[in-house]
Amino acid sequence: MIDHPYYDDKMREECGVFGVSGHPDAAALTALGLHALQHRGQEAAGIVAYDGEQFHSHRAMGLVGDNFSSEEIIQRLPGTSAIGHNRYSTAGDTVLRNVQPLFAEFSFGGLAIAHNGNLTNARSVRRDLIQRGCLFQSTTDTEIIIQLVAISLYSTVADRVIDALHQVQGAYSLVAMTRKKMIGVRDPYGVRPLVLGRLDGAYILSSETCALDIIGAEFVRDVEPGEIIIIDEIGLHSVKPFSKVNRRFCIFEYIYFARPDSIVEDRNVYDIRKRIGQELALESHIDADVIIPVPDSGVPAALGYAAKSGLPFELGIIRNHYVGRTFIEPTDNIRHLGVKLKHNANRSNIAGKRVILIDDSIVRGTTSLKIVAMVRAAGATEVHMRISSPPITGSCFYGIDTPKKDHLLAANYDVPGMAKRIGVDSLAFISVDGLYKAITAAKKDVDDPTFCDACFTGHYPIPLLDRDGGREQRQLPLLAES
Ligand code: SF4
User: Fold this and answer.
1) SS3 category, 238
2) 129-140 pLDDT, tens digit each
3) CB proximity list for 49: less than 8 A, separation 6 or greater
4) What contacts 321, CB < 8 A, 6 or more positions away?
5) Rounded to whole angstroms, how far apart are CA atoms 270 and 444?
6) H or E element: which one contains 76?
7) pLDDT at site 320
8) Closest residue by Cα to residue 29 from 230, 257, 213
9) Which residues pair with 354 in a beta bridge?
10) Nearest 5 degrees, angle CA 12-CA 16-CA 21?
11) Per-residue pLDDT averaged across 406-424, rounded?
């Protein structure tokens, strides 16, 4: 995770993917879809379109709106099929050669691919491919899949993709496009989301339903864990070529990553976050005067907490939404302003009050420390913090950017120790069972948990082959590029 005052002290979703098959405005719709998925990656974006004869690509560093809002760019992406990608890098550097969708020429024609997630055997597969003579142009996991497709001995594209995916392990949702097909895949555990939609007869694939809403598409269903959807001129086919395993969707999507207006695995994210706040109040309420969310992500849980506790909800912290990453590089002289650039206390709702702050998570604790100091400086008589996730004690290896374990506050301190570090009068986190109850109305079934909760529990459902083989998970490119 980048240590920079303008970055939230948050876990970060790696990527968003989107695809349109069979619509005359495929690239424009894809740009809109990526715009709705901007929260899943803000460092780069790309679209590849196919016009029946040729593939066209535009990839750029920065936000979707900065790179895909001009008519001229969209006109350079003609055709009725397009796939797109938002990137926040966890595996591979953030340089243009890593920006997706990646594209390759094969004997069967072109293949464009966009991928959300992380392969847990990427390093070993990559090393084997290099030994077999494969030449890599990027440092992304996605190119590993492309190389495996390239050397596959199967004849059809779909069979080559299936063959490639049988050789990788990890968490992934991907969309791919050839001259005649669009392909959508979720890994066998279904860790990362992918949904299917329809618009005017066209098929849409998207990381989240909020991107279907922006283009007026109808939500059809989630792509199932381990399912490969193939869309061609005949229609939609579905295959499930992997050995069946119990599903393990990322529980953190409900806590923080997904947009609150999305429907994820048949549940509205906003409703779940409110329910988590209610459970949090049931588990750890303390006498106070006001409930204040740490905006924006703490708001739904704070609403649920306030409703359950009967205390007033107030926007006691205001967030400045216009602090972008392109804002001036801070000098040492202004670095100490830190979080104030992004958050300011709304003093009249805080002064003289016992405050319960609600946030969705504590990662390193650096932002919490500053926010608590700010709320105290605004006159709070007591500051209590309640967190709508369990303590994050381990890194994610499934496509979410997390600091190394020794930088995670909860990996180094118990709850009283964390409270002391961030300067609160009391601190509590929702329990793992409380989190499951908010989502499923039942405690965690340890034999079939349904969700991945590894960053809270250390139970990683997909083997961490690179890490457990003594190798770092992240790929180390030989070429440094700026
Ligand atoms: S380790 Fe945490 S963030 Fe990563 S997939 Fe599992 S629940 Fe999600």
Assistant:
1) strand
2) 999 988 888 888
3) 26, 27, 30, 55, 56, 57, 77, 78, 79, 81, 82
4) none
5) 21
6) none
7) 83
8) 213
9) 382
10) 175
11) 96
Using left for φ > 0, alpha for ψ between -120 and 50, and beta otherwise, residue 234 falls in: alpha
298-307 exposure pattern, b = at least 16 Cβ within 10 A, e = fewer: bbbbbbbbbe
Residues ≥6 apart with Cβ < 8 Å to 2: none
Instruction: Please list, in sequence order, all residues whose beta carbon lies within 8 angstroms of the beta carbon of residue 99, skipping any fewer than 6 positions away.
Output: 44, 45, 46, 59, 60, 61, 85, 87
Ligand 1 mean position, distance from CA 363 (Å): 13
DSSP per position, 278-343: HHHHHHH----SEEEE-TTTTHHHHHHHHHHHTPPB---EEE-TT--TTSPPPPHHHHTTGGGGTE
Check pLDDT > 50 for residue 480: no
- Report CA torsion sign: 396, 430, 246, 259: negative
CA-to-CA dists, residue 355 to 216, 284, 310, 423, angstroms: 41, 14, 14, 13
Whether 223 contacts 186, CB under 8 Å? yes
Ligand 1 binding pocket includes 396 (Cβ within 6 Å): yes
Q: Is 455 a catalytic residue?
A: no
Could you tell which of 255, 455, 457 is best to mutate to test the pocket of ligand 1, judged by most ligand atoms within 8 Å of the CB? Answer: 455
> What pTM value is reported for the model?
0.92
Three-state DSSP class for 60? strand
User: Ligand 1 centroid to 390 CA: how many Å?
Assistant: 12
CA atoms within 13 A of residue 375's CA, in its CB half-sphere: 33
**Residue 85 identity:** H
User: Which tokens is 203 given?
Assistant: 């098929």
Cα 4 to Cα 288, 342, 404: the distances in Å are 33, 12, 16
Pick from 95, 114, 88, 97: nearest CA to 15: 88
312's tokens:
């007033």
Asked whether the predicted pLDDT for residue 482 surpasses 50, the reply is: no
Provide the pLDDT for residue 339: 54
Answer yes or no: is the C-beta of 363 below 6 A from any ligand 1 atom.
no
* Whole-number Cα distances in Å, 377 to 344, 346, 374: 11, 11, 5
Cα distances (angstroms) measured from residue 344 to each of 6, 305, 306, 320, 366 = 14, 22, 21, 8, 16
The response to whether residue 191 sits with its C-beta less than 6 Å from ligand 1 reads yes
Nearest protein Cα to ligand 1, atom 4: 396
| Ligand 1 centroid, distance to 216 Cα (angstroms) | 30
- Cis omega before residue 296 (within 30°)? yes
Angle at 128 between CA 193 and CA 247, to 5 degrees: 25
